[in-house]
Amino acid sequence: MRVLLIRLRLIGDVVFSTPLIRELRRTFPDATLDYLVERAAAPVVSGNPHLNEVIVVERTRGLARIADDLRLARRLRRSRYDVVVDLHGGPRSSWLTLASGARQRIGYDIIGRQRMYTRTVKRARELRPRHSVLNQWDLLSAIEGWDPHQPDPARDCVEMPLDKAADQRIGERLDRAGITPQDEIIVVHVSANSPFRRWPETAFMELLAGLAQGGSRRRLIVSSGPSDPTAAIRIAAGARAMMAGTPAATRIVDFGEFGDVAELQALIRRSRIFIGGDTGPLHLAATTATPVVAIYGPTLPAQFSPWRSPALVTESVEVAGLPCRPCDQRVCEPGDFRCLTRLQPQDVLAAAERTLKCTA
Question: Could you give all domains of the chain from N- to C-terminal order, each with its CATH number?
Answer without folding.
Answer: 2-142 (3.40.50.2000), 170-358 (3.40.50.2000)
